[in-house]
Design a protein that fits this description.
The protein has helices at 3-8, 13-20, 60-73, 90-99, 144-154, 195-198; strands spanning 27-28, 35-36, 39-43, 46-52, 82-86, 102-107, 115-116, 129-134, 155-162, 173-179, 185-188, 203-208, 220-221, 242-243, 246-251. The chain has 252 residues and is α/β, with parallel strands linked by helices. It has one domain (3-251): Rossmann fold. Strand 5, helix 4 (90-99) and strand 6 form a beta-alpha-beta unit. The longest helix has 14 residues, at 60-73.
């Protein structure tokens, strides 16, 4: 756990951060309701400004995914539906568990999940679930088309799969081997990556940061013009310092 996450567990930290950084831009977190400045984060790809909610720790992608889920599930009666959450994030785990009549979790190695499972070979019968959520998983899977086929297999007719990946270049770049500096990523996805979903699903609807109010801060504020770097040697440079995120919603 990074130091910022440890500090955030201290009671009242969000209020202290808000008081100390009152001159920074103010935002609203749709996950926990916090209002105030967001924290910068430093990762393998560099510094991202206004990235993390100091109250719940939700990042840009979690906030965008939360808003998309709210939209696509708003008019659906999900009480009788069955959901599978792969590599479950705490930010969305509680929300999905409360939304669906039956909610299950899975991961290849994570503790505390309902199923230890390889997403390339899911141990479930055909048409077992109505909803599958797997965020920032497929960029770690070399056999990603096999994984997408498995997700489609376990979905019932009319089901939905939400499968975001980090879009960090114009066109997808496949790595020769997993990059240990990128948490084992095997590719740098571009927006064209979602075409792989269209090979299996009847319809793929892509939501973006641009479709929601600015107050939620759903963009990656980072300088990608410095790429490639030692940590990200195969990522090409991208112009600009504010980059949209995307959430593909796949309909069976």
């Amino acid at each position: 756990m990074r130091p910022a996450a440890l500090i955030r567990r201290m009671p009242g930290y969000a209020q202290v951060f808000r008081a100390r950084h009152g001159s920074r831009p103010r935002f609203e977190c749709p996950v926990c309701g916090y209002r105030g400045p967001f924290m910068d984060v430093t990762g393998f790809a560099g510094v991202r400004r206004h990235a993390e909610c100091p109250q719940c720790g939700a990042l840009e992608r979690h906030r965008l995914q939360s808003l998309v889920l709210q939209r696509i599930l708003a008019e659906r009666d999900t009480a009788g539906l069955k959901a599978l959450h792969f590599a479950p994030e705490k930010f969305l785990r509680r929300r999905l568990a409360a939304r669906f009549g039956r909610y299950e979790t899975a991961d290849i190695e994570m503790r505390g999940v309902d199923h230890i499972a390889d997403i390339r070979r899911l141990p479930f019968a055909d048409a077992s679930y109505d909803f599958v959520f797997a965020s920032h998983v497929l960029e770690h899977v070399a056999e990603d088309r096999q994984a997408v086929a498995e997700i489609r297999r376990v979905l019932r007719a009319g089901g939905i799969a939400v499968l975001p990946v980090p879009v960090v270049c114009e066109r997808t770049i496949e790595y020769a081997a997993p990059n240990p500096h990128e948490a084992g990523h095997v590719r740098a996805p571009g927006r064209d990556y979602f075409d792989r979903y269209r090979e299996r699903f009847a319809r793929v609807e892509v939501w973006s940061s641009e479709q929601f109010p600015e107050k939620y801060q759903l963009y990656a504020w980072e300088d990608r013009s410095v790429w490639p770097t030692a940590e990200c040697p195969q990522r090409p440079p991208m112009a600009g310092e504010r980059h949209a995120d995307f959430v593909p919603v796949c309909y069976a």
